[in-house]
Design a protein that fits this description.
298 residues, single chain, Endonuclease III, domain 1, TATA-Binding Protein, 46% helix, five-stranded antiparallel sheet, 13 helices, alpha+beta, 7 strands
């Protein structure tokens, strides 16, 4: 069994990450299994089911094990993908220090301040998930995303259980409206999924190596992708600090409670003003506030 030792940049609360994942009513790509994290990673042309746990003798380290795989996988490439998905090298220290100087912010995010924010492996993966989530309940979106994985069929079996990877662009690009009807999203959004998949498959939409300031206008130029979808995509891929989905109803409710102690949703104007005042820390604040909302309210 291939094994890797990972050293996250502190502060890094692996247990809090597992706690958040346990609140998801339907698992998609990221799984909390007991005291471990599991995910199928695509490493070049191969798949690997990876399990990550706290190191048994040094709690500052993580130990990753490959439970099963499709073929030979380069350790350096696997480590790089794990580092990206688990946000091992994100600079959480600068944000933590800043939060200590801002009392309302620190109060709002202190319980989750060391929570690592999981990333998507690719911008395409994040974009597909965001499109599915447009104007649909969180529970419904998770079920749809899970169905898409099973439909794609890229999977590994371990101890009699099947674990899925995200479909590749060519698959969705070649799908029909009827093929994707079980997603239970609108025909308009199914067509958008197919369109962006075709763009990615043809090499006309390549976002992974772009700065967020370049990727954002490219995304919003596509009909059907507005500010929220672009902001969510960039947050999950690049951890952009510049774009916040202020029209997200869950974020509005979380901000209203954790910052102002009020039930219900804060209005967009309130969110715009709040996050504008946080500058480069706006994106991480939004991610953490939403994550705390998931942990405590779902």
């Amino acid at each position: 069994m291939q094994s890797l030792i990972l050293k996250p940049i502190p502060p890094y609360d692996f247990d809090k990450l597992l706690q958040m994942l346990r609140r998801f009513p339907t698992t998609v790509l990221d799984h909390a299994v007991g005291d471990t994290y599991r995910r199928v990673l695509r490493v070049r042309d191969q798949l690997a089911l990876v399990q990550v746990a706290t190191h048994v003798t040094d709690s500052s380290l993580l130990r990753a094990s490959v439970l099963t795989q499709t073929g030979q996988i380069d350790s350096a490439a696997l480590t790089a993908e794990l580092g990206k998905v688990l946000a091992l090298v994100d600079d959480r220290h600068t944000f933590s220090e800043y939060a200590r100087t801002n009392a309302p912010l620190h109060t709002a995010i202190e319980p989750v301040i060391a929570l690592p924010m999981l990333r998507s492996q690719t911008a395409y993966e994040a974009l597909v998930s965001a499109i599915i989530e447009q104007q649909i309940s969180w529970r419904g979106a998770l079920k749809a995303q899970r169905w898409l994985l099973e439909w794609g069929g890229h999977s590994l079996e371990h101890n009699g259980e099947r674990w899925y990877a995200h479909p590749i662009p060519d698959q969705i690009a070649g799908a029909t409206l009827a093929d994707l009807k079980p997603l239970k999203i609108t025909d308009k959004r199914i067509r958008l999924l197919i369109e962006v998949s075709q763009l990615v498959a043809e090499g006309k939409l390549q976002l992974d190596d772009l700065p967020a300031t370049d990727a954002y206008p490219i995304l919003t130029a596509i009909k059907g992708i507005g500010h929220w979808t672009a902001a969510v995509t960039l947050s999950r891929t690049l951890r952009s600090t510049n774009y916040v989905g202020t029209n997200d109803v869950a974020l509005q409710a979380a901000v209203n409670w954790f910052f102002f102690g009020r039930e219900g949703r804060a209005d967009v104007k309130t969110l715009v003003e709040l996050f504008a005042g946080l500058g480069e820390h706006a994106g991480r604040t939004a991610d953490l506030v939403l994550s705390r909302w998931v942990i405590e309210r779902y």
